[in-house]
Design brief:
By secondary structure, the protein is mainly beta. Helix content is 0%, strand content 46%. It contains no helices and 24 strands. The chain starts with 5 loop residues before the first strand and ends with a strand.
């Protein structure tokens, strides 16, 4: 199908998007798996685990109770990934009622308690809505995880703790949930290892909003090596949005769907600090491919997540 000839009937879908949407009427024949994900040490259910099938365009997310359903092609391996747990790959045919994940061994940082005489704040990564180029969305399966690198500066020593995270979101559904993952930097300069070992859940209101996430109680310190802030879509029913598409110069219609929300990005001439996780590995982001659905001034631009941080002491 020629995607340049497709038009969105819903006016909310006409904003610049860098995803190619999925068509809802495509049918695939796979065996269906139903199971619950648990912590191998405690037996507790693990919510919001990202689940991918290797070599197939199949992905899902466990719900708040750790349960999931997955249409899976027999002998392919399924990757389970959750913050604070070791990744696990399982042959699809071997999945029964329960999948267990092993918690990561987390080294605890030394905590120095000081009396707080005066609260200081510092903001970085600030943006204006007029700065936004495209909204990055999840319209294909599997979805990416998208990240932005924040470099450390010695001036942050006065306000070393991350207090608030602000993300520009646009959602066609009410209260779309998404995940924030915080990664350190590995020896290759890529995202590697968590600096916080649990999910940080963001909730995007319907419409285009600045979604603020208060993390002031989590004690997350800005690493001197810098860190990556990654945003992850949840493939859950409450996030699913369906819309109608027509083909230009034709009466043909297609039903499409996306998983909300989409995230605002700032266009850059160079790759900068934008990263994408796809096909099981991290890579530096690629530029926009010119097409009729995208404003010409955004062709060949790189997309940096519109994320702002507030630091405090």
């Amino acid at each position: 199908m020629d995607f340049d000839k497709l038009k969105f009937n819903n006016k909310n879908m006409k904003k610049n998007l860098v995803y190619i949407f999925a068509l809802a009427n495509v049918s695939l024949v796979f065996s269906q798996k139903k199971a619950t994900i648990i912590n191998s040490d405690t037996g507790e259910k693990v919510p919001y685990v990202s689940i991918w099938v290797e070599n197939e365009n199949l992905q899902t997310t466990s719900n708040a109770d750790g349960a999931f359903e997955l249409n899976s092609a027999g002998s392919n391996r399924v990757l389970f990934s959750a913050v604070g747990f070791e990744d696990r790959k399982v042959v699809a045919d071997s999945i029964k009622d329960v999948v267990s994940l092993k918690p990561m061994a987390i080294s605890l940082r030394e905590v120095v308690i000081k009396s707080k005489r005066q609260t200081q704040e510092f903001s970085l990564g600030t943006f204006k809505r007029s700065d936004i180029g495209v909204y990055m969305g999840c319209g294909t399966i599997p979805c990416w995880i998208v990240a932005r690198y924040f470099e450390y500066n010695d001036s942050y020593a006065q306000t070393p703790f991350i207090s608030r995270i602000r993300v520009l979101t646009s959602s066609n559904v009410k209260d779309a949930k998404f995940n924030v993952r915080l990664y350190g930097v590995n020896e290759n300069g890529e995202p590697g290892g968590y600096i916080y070992d649990d999910n940080i859940i963001g909730i995007a209101k319907k419409g285009t909003k600045i979604t603020e996430i208060d993390v002031s109680d989590l004690g997350i310190q800005f690493p001197e090596t810098g860190f990556f802030l990654a945003l992850e879509w949840f493939i859950i029913e409450n996030n699913r949005y369906e819309f109608e598409i027509t083909v230009e110069d034709s009466k043909d219609k297609q039903n499409g769907f996306s998983y909300e929300p989409s995230f605002g990005t700032i266009p850059l001439d160079t790759r900068g600090d934008a990263w994408i996780y796809t096909r099981g590995k991290w890579m530096e982001a690629w530029s926009n491919i010119p097409n009729k659905m995208l404003n010409k001034q955004l062709h060949n631009k790189y997309n940096l997540l519109a994320v702002a941080l507030t630091l405090t002491n």
